[in-house]
């Protein structure tokens, strides 16, 4: 089959699901279908207030526009084995020009795993806005996991419990991609699937996120108050392959700075996850994946080692 891997297919859009629809069964079916067929979709009219998303984007942008010395106040320590903190990553493009992507990572839930040392103190509203966003986002991601659990014929709590129940962690990342004159030369985020369970992402108006579907890269157009949901490797494995973990990447805009705010919902490092036991107990339901301690799974994926 001929592959169009580097082409875009303008005629396809990622599914958009309106959560304000009163028919919850219909909404749940749409979430399940999109997760089986795409592994990515956008939810609109959800429970996170649009004004809160706007403020989240405002405080994030203000932080990244501060002088470098101020951003260094929350820098990732050089000897840290963890991801939390601010980092600048330089790349050279093919013509030797410098291009860079800035990141800020910090956990936003559960409170016992939050280290405020990595949360910007400037702008002053950053903490309040981000805490409020965390509590809304937790509810939304748990609702989506409930629908996905029922789509597997299981109890609503099954996927959340499989991911670790109340020990599940929410890791926020802010990607700051300055414009690049030739966006084909510098990729914002390389092609990957997310290692975690589920990712909820908002972005500013610049286009960039693309999902791979049927041999094409599809632009994931994000409504200003919409939230993109990305199914990751943990849900793929816990569902024994029913839900797809989507390959995606981020390109850069020629003129505009692009900023995105993914929140990665994932197990704590010592948690063991794998196909949910109820899905592999029948005679013809062999497990398609091995269970892993999440720490080992992440390490092997990062190092590009084989994963069963
Ligand atoms: O910037 C985006 O839209 C995607 C970012 C992403 O995939 C990542 O940070 O892992």
TrEMBL record:
UniProt KW Secreted keyword: no
Domain Fe2OG dioxygenase: 167-267
Keyword check for Iron: yes
Database matches in InterPro entries: DIOX_N (IPR026992), IPNS-like_FE2OG_OXY (IPR044861), IPNS-like_sf (IPR027443), Oxoglu/Fe-dep_dioxygenase_dom (IPR005123), Plant_2OG-oxidoreductases (IPR050295)
Family: Belongs to the iron/ascorbate-dependent oxidoreductase family.
Annotated protein name in UniProt: Flavonol synthase 3
Keywords for the protein's UniProt record, in alphabetical order: Iron, Metal-binding, Oxidoreductase
Cited PROSITE patterns: FE2OG_OXY (PS51471)
Gene name tied to this protein: LOC104741561
Superkingdom of source: Eukaryota
């Amino acid at each position: 089959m001929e592959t169009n891997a580097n082409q875009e297919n303008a005629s396809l859009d990622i599914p958009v699901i309106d959560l304000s629809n009163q028919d919850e069964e219909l909404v749940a079916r749409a979430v399940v279908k999109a997760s089986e067929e795409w592994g990515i979709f956008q939810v609109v009219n959800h429970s996170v207030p649009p004004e809160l998303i706007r403020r989240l984007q405002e405080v994030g942008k203000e932080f990244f526009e501060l002088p470098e010395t101020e951003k260094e106040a929350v820098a990732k320590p050089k000897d840290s084995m963890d991801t939390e903190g601010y980092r600048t990553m330089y790349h050279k493009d093919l013509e030797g020009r410098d291009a860079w992507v800035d990141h800020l990572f910090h956990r936003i839930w559960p409170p016992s795993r939050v280290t405020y040392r990595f949360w910007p103190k400037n702008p002053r509203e950053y903490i309040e806005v981000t805490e409020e966003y965390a509590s809304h986002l937790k509810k939304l991601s748990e609702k989506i996991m409930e629908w996905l659990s029922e789509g597997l014929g299981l109890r609503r709590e099954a996927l959340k419990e499989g991911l670790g129940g109340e020990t599940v962690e929410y890791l926020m990342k802010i990607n700051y991609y300055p414009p690049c004159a030739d966006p084909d030369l510098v990729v914002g985020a390389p092609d990957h699937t997310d290692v975690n369970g589920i990712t909820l992402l908002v972005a500013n108006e610049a286009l960039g996120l693309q999902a791979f579907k049927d041999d094409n890269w599809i632009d994931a157009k994000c409504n200003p108050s919409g939230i993109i949901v990305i199914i990751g490797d943990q849900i793929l494995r816990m569902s024994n392959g029913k839900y797809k973990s989507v390959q995606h990447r981020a390109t850069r805009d020629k003129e505009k700075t692009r900023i995105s705010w993914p929140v990665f919902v994932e197990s704590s490092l010592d948690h063991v996850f794998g196909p949910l036991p109820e899905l592999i107990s029948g005679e013809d339901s062999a497990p398609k994946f091995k269970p892993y301690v999440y720490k080992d799974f992440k390490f092997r994926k990062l190092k590009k080692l084989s994963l069963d």
